[in-house]
Design brief:
This is Glycosyltransferase involved in cell wall biosynthesis. The protein contains 14 helices and eleven strands. By secondary structure, the protein is α/β, with parallel strands linked by helices. The strands form two sheets. Strands 1, 2, 3, 4, 5, 6, 7, 10 and 11 form a nine-stranded mixed β-sheet that branches. Strands 8-9 form a two-stranded antiparallel ribbon.
């Protein structure tokens, strides 16, 4: 059986760190907590779980802090979590099983990262991250902010999920790091440019975000998944600026990189739906339900391949008076969102319409 060192970097996490550690303490053999300058009770709480609490002077570089954390590990494998992450009871059991069964030849294990949920508890957005890595391989983190772990070798894709459950978010931290990098004359990598554009967009600086997304795409050095996300982000920026033509163009640009993703299909469906081109819209929403989206390490918003296209198809089929089809898709949407008031109202409406027919 493998042994695991948990490695975390933290700062002012007194509200969440115990929740995280409670969810993992019985599974890992070692807990390493690297504090980057807390002024609250974070370190005090951490010391209730481990005597391996270290200080690291914050230098506006997440990769440096995480690499220092990894250097403290003494067990076979390293598991990394953030303080606002948790493992549910189901995923705790899955990790215990993995510990028993993981072949020693495996260099890194990916896990799902559940980022958000709807009111029904369904996972809305998720991605894959390499969470468990062999210590002796000395894999390193890269990037001052939005850092990534560079792994290689014999990789294993698990169905274990880490759940992100933040109580608050520092909206200024990341963009300030990027601004400090620019002020110091540091050269951005294409990945830095992409994530800086994301920060600019989140701060409603849409024009500058557009410039950076285009710079990133023009470099032709981005990972395909980031290229596709950049196109969707561009479309969102143009939407905010009421530039419908470029919004559509940015959505279509995703087709340069891969077959139509469910999100692209839904965006195109909505474009034609707004123009009352119902049959074309119907085509694209059906395509959203049939498109493959099995990327190994990528962001996925399940909304675009589950209830949303079904609900839009319900509306569209109602427009063209195909009520049986409309009812069918409303029922499909209801399986995902059984308590949604609009879907419930739709059901009552179609029950009446179909009864009268």
């Amino acid at each position: 059986m493998i042994t695991i060192s948990l490695c975390m970097i933290v700062k002012n996490e007194e509200d969440v760190i115990a929740r995280c550690l409670d969810s993992i303490k019985g599974i890992v053999e070692e807990i390493n907590i690297i504090d980057t300058g807390s002024s609250d009770r974070t370190k005090e709480i951490g010391k209730k779980y481990t005597n391996r609490v270290f200080d690291f002077e914050w230098i506006d570089n997440f990769a440096a802090a995480r690499n220092f954390a990894f250097q403290q590990a003494t067990k076979n494998y390293i598991l990394w979590l953030d303080a606002d992450d948790i493992l549910t009871e189901e995923d705790q059991e899955k990790l215990k099983i993995l510990k028993e069964s993981l072949a020693p030849s495996i260099d890194a294990v990916s896990m799902n990262y559940h980022l958000s949920f709807d009111d029904e508890g369904n996972v809305v957005s998720s991605l894959k991250r390499y969470r468990l890595v062999k210590t002796k391989n000395k894999f390193t983190w890269i990037g001052n902010v939005h850092e990534f772990l560079a792994v290689s070798g014999n990789l294993f894709d698990s169905d274990i999920a880490v759940t992100h459950s933040p109580l608050s978010h520092n909206h200024e931290r990341n963009i300030q790091i990027y601004k400090n990098m620019l002020a110091s004359g540091e050269t951005f990598s294409p990945r830095d440019t992409f994530y800086y554009a994301n920060e600019l967009m989140d701060h409603n600086n849409f024009e500058e975000a557009i410039l950076n997304y285009n710079e990133f795409l023009d470099s032709k050095l981005g990972w395909v998944e980031d290229n596709i996300r950049a196109c969707f982000k561009l479309a969102d920026c143009y939407n905010k600026l009421n530039d419908i033509e470029n919004e559509l163009g940015s959505t279509l640009q995703t087709l340069i990189y891969d077959a139509p993703r469910p999100e692209a299909c839904c965006r195109l469906g909505y474009f034609f739906m707004e123009q009352a081109k119902n049959e074309i819209a119907i085509h694209w929403y059906h395509q959203a339900l049939t498109s493959e989206n099995e990327q190994h390490i990528s962001f996925q918003n399940k909304t675009f391949s589950t209830w949303l296209p079904h609900l839009q198809l319900c509306v569209l089929y109602d427009r063209v008076q195909k009520y049986e089809e409309a009812y069918y898709h409303n029922e499909k949407a209801r399986k995902y969102k059984p308590n949604d008031s609009n879907i419930i109202s739709n059901k009552k409406y179609f029950d009446k319409v179909l009864d009268e027919k």
